[in-house]
Each structure stands twice: as structure tokens, then as C-alpha cells.
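note to self — DONT lose this again. spent like an hour looking for the file last time. sequence + predicted structure for the chain T wanted, 258 res
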Amino acid sequence: MKPTAVLVGVCIPALGYAFNLFNPALYNVRLGFRWKFIDGPESGLKDITFPVNMAKTSRERGYYLSQQFGFHGVRRQGHIAIQPRPDNSKGQAMLRANFTSHQAGTATCHPACQAGPGLGGAEGSRDGVTCAIDVPADYAHTFNLTVENVRDANTWRGLLVDTVTRKAHEIGVWTLPSGAGDIQRSRFGFVEYIRQPGSPGGCENYPKLEATIYHPWSNSAGAGELHGVGSMDLGLCGKNIFKKIKVTNGFTVYYGRA
């Protein structure tokens, strides 16, 4: 099922702020991974999809699994992300999805979006727009995080799609400033962990993360196979709480307590 975009009116661009290289949020990144399309249009991609499965991840706050993407013609990147959440009051498993532009001058009228890095998103920059939704979800299912061009050359939509039920949730829609192009053919992603208030510190106390990150794909004409896809531990805990295993069309990362 393909959702209907909320695309209305003329929107006010987000104001620009100075980028702080020493933002403490940058030190929360635990794992990094990279991807690159060998082929594809020189002008860039009109869409990209990042499949992920978190079947055995702890259903609690803290982890933020993000895939970044750059655009031709502008300096700052965007990202799309998924976060485990606690069960709701009815006992339903929940996920949060985020869709963010870090580019100053990004505009939005979408009800799930706001200016700046709020709504539980990563805070690498205070520029741009971030969007977030919380949805009931079956953690056993694989989810597609899709970024696609809609309406005009500069307007982009983020989707969370359950690959089993085919149910699609629109995370948000935003418009980049004039001069922005299509999605670049290579970038990287990360897993961030933000310790929650009252939770103990130390490597042995990280919640369990078991995520299978599949190779991204695109419907853009000429987008070929990937190479250089891999992951690395960027934290201080090392092999004590981290391992990775290659699987068909991706890899599974294990992090935190068993």
C-alpha cells in the first residue's frame, strides 16, 4: 500500500545555525558502516531503500540506527533512521522512524516534521528539518527505510515499509533549497547509543542490539551492484560486546549485553 503524501502550501525554510563539531552527541556513535553503488546516473539517484531487521533487539530506548545520504549541489546530508522503543500501554511493540535533512534552508509543512534536530533524532547539526513517527510494529519483520523524490526536483519523502504486511508509513516530507540535486551514490550509516537517565554506565550495561543491515537498493535507472559494504566498531568496548557476521546481501551486527 502506497501512502498519500501530505504536500500542502508554501513552507517556511528552517533557519541555519552554526555547526558544532564538538557536539557531545557525536561521541555516542558505536558502530559505523558504508555503502557505494558502482553504477548509476551521474546526476544521482531518485530513490534509495535501506532494509533492516531488528528481530532480537531489546525493546527499549537508546539505540538509533541511521543511514545517511548526500545530495548533489548542497553541503549537508540527510538521514533516515529506525529506533527501538518500549511497548505501549496496550502491550504492543513499537518502533520510531526518523527522516532528517541537516541542510539549512530545508522547508516543510508536514505535521510530523519540525525545524531543527529534535523529535529524538541525532544531533550532528542544528540546521534543517527532522520528522518522526511512532508506530506499532512486529520486530520479527524486515523494514524498508525508503527515501524518494516526489512532486518536484527538490522535494523528498521518507517511508517506513513493513516488508511482510506491505504496510507503508509516511515519516515526513521536506523540500531542499533551490540548487539541490539527486542523491549521491555513496555514503555511510551509524548506530548511536544515548544512555538513558538513570541507566548504569559501562560496556557491560549496553542493551542488546542484534540488527541485520541489508544492502541498499534503488529503482533509479542504471543503479547497479554495490561494493565496499562493511561495518566497524567505533566505540571503546571493542570485541567484548561487538561482533558481526556476513549474511546474504548484508551483515548482522551484535552489540551490547547478551
